[in-house]
């Protein structure tokens, strides 16, 4: 089947949908939905945000933020928070009915309805790479997970319960994640073994 070219664009898809929580200058909670966010290291997250966002102002001022996984159950509320700015709609969070809770570790709010949250302390803000966005790095001080989305062992997430949401930047549609395909670094072990035809596969150590 032939490939079709889509030109020069960020084509990493799907991407996780995240809700970023901050405090405004008057101490009221604020939130925005974000998709250009990644794990930079084991203890650092990276947000790529439009520099005109109210959230960016808040992070610069408060030196902290939270990052929560958007779920199927909270998607409509979180989607709304991405369509309006706190600069023009200061009560946008109140309109969604989400419950803001103060983090015990950083000066930022998290939201009771979103079961997985990272409390982050501002590490640095990199120089802008273009005219509209900034790269914000935060050190993860803690990850809190509501027991309602844990497996019976109490140690791992149950994605069937969590139902996290991702976004496709080609169709602009949301999708829910849930099917378990197997444990990492185990599915590929079949290629370490000699096949019936006698072909050996060699793997390199990481």
- Helix and strand sequence: EEEEEHEHHEEEEHEE
| Cα-to-Cα separation, first versus last residue | 33 Å
- Principal-axes geometry comes out as globular
Low-confidence segments, given as residue ranges, are: none
Q: Largest sheet, if any?
A: 7 strands, antiparallel
User: What structural category do the secondary elements indicate?
Assistant: mainly beta
Radius of gyration (Å): 20 Å
Number of helices: 4
Based on DSSP secondary structure assignment, what is the total number of beta strands?
Answer: 12
Sequence of strands across the biggest β-sheet:
3-2-6-9-10-5-4
Mean pLDDT over the full residue set: 90
> Strand fraction band?
25-35%
User: Considering DSSP H and I runs of 4 or more, what fraction of the residues is helical?
Assistant: 10-25%
Features:
206 residues, mainly beta
Describe the structure.
The protein has 206 residues and is mostly beta strands. The protein is 13% helix and 34% strand. It has 4 helices and 12 strands; from the N terminus they run E-E-E-E-E-H-E-H-H-E-E-E-E-H-E-E. The strands form 3 sheets. The protein has a 7-stranded antiparallel sheet with strand order 3-2-6-9-10-5-4. The protein has a 3-stranded antiparallel sheet with strand order 1-11-12, with no helix packed on it. A two-stranded antiparallel ribbon has the order 7-8. The longest helix has 9 residues, at 54-62. The model has no long low-confidence stretch (mean pLDDT 90).
């Amino acid at each position: 089947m032939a490939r079709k070219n889509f030109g020069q664009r960020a084509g990493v898809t799907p991407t996780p949908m995240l809700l970023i929580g901050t405090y405004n200058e008057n101490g009221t909670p604020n939130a925005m939905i974000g998709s250009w966010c990644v794990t930079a290291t084991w203890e650092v997250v990276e947000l790529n945000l439009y520099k005109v966002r109210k959230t960016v102002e808040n992070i610069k001022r408060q030196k902290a933020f939270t990052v929560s996984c958007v779920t199927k159950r909270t998607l409509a509320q979180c989607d709304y928070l991405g369509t309006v700015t706190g600069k023009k709609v200061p009560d946008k969070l109140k309109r969604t009915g989400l419950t803001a809770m103060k983090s015990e570790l950083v000066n930022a709010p998290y939201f009771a309805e979103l079961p997985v949250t990272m409390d982050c302390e501002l590490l640095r803000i990199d120089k802008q790479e273009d005219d509209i966005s900034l790269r914000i790095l935060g050190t993860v001080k803690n990850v809190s997970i509501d027991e309602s989305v844990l497996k019976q062992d109490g140690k791992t997430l149950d994605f069937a319960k969590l139902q996290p949401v991702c976004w496709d930047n080609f169709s602009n549609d949301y999708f829910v994640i849930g099917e378990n395909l197997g444990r990492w670094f185990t599915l590929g072990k079949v290629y370490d073994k000699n096949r019936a035809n006698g072909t050996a596969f060699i793997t390199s150590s990481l």
